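Thread amino acids onto this structure.
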């Protein structure tokens, strides 16, 4: 940990930081594209990741805006906001839980 930030590596991400389970207040999800890293964009994986790490008050943001991501966030109690995308993308994802 450095200045309150954790960088979660892609391998073993759900067991790598059990000491912060349910304590993360901001998730900046930068998991490459769904074309190169399909497993990281599956709804079941996203739901597990979000449920495992997010605190009761949490912000989740990413450059992507996929249906599976939106369903996962909603099932985890997040409210989605429409946001413009980055670098020519139509939209990005900004979601909050109890904020």
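Threaded sequence (99 positions):
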């Amino acid at each position: 940990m450095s200045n309150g930030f954790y960088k979660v590596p892609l391998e073993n991400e759900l067991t790598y930081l059990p000491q912060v389970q349910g304590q993360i207040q901001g998730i900046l999800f930068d998991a490459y594209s769904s074309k190169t890293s399909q497993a990281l964009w599956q709804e079941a994986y996203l739901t597990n990741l979000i449920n495992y790490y997010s605190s009761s008050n949490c912000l989740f943001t990413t450059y992507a805006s996929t249906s599976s991501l939106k369903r996962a966030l909603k099932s985890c109690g997040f409210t989605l906001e429409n946001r413009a995308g980055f670098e020519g993308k139509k939209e990005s994802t900004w979601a909050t839980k109890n904020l």
